[in-house]
């Protein structure tokens, strides 16, 4: 009987590890390479944060932290945004703390509120780092309107993707 429990735990750990790796790869792809929306400052908005929000709503906390840091960090590294790798490795796991995977659904009141606050936290932390990098923290915060395109897009994408996954009972299937 005890061996069955150990095997089941290994299976859960394996499933979480594989899911984390898959989500890290998706985060990297949608952050750095696909589904970009051009912004007025010459950059682009992406839905990588929406996938981070999904991972935080599906996976246990340590796995969600790892896949968010690895996926977003690899996106910065492979797209030439080297100066953003270290801040990304710190900021993206902080966003995960706004979410819970305890419900049978992805879209819960806590996760919707969490997505709202995660967007604000992400925007503020990156603006702070930008101010440090470029020597003017106040100037970094004056471009808030452009900087908010990213979290708004991620919030909307998270809600849409979460509702679709909830419609097909993804979390019940995933935990089975």
From TrEMBL:
**Which parts of the chain are coiled coil?**
none
Q: Which UniProt keywords apply?
A: Membrane, Transmembrane, Transmembrane helix
Write down a Pfam family by its short name: ECF-ribofla_trS
Question: Which cellular components does GO assign to this protein?
Answer: membrane
Specify whether Transmembrane is a keyword of the entry.
Answer: yes
Q: Which domain of life is it from?
A: Bacteria
What residue ranges are annotated as transmembrane? 20-38, 50-75, 81-100, 112-134, 140-165
This one is known as: TIGR04002 family protein
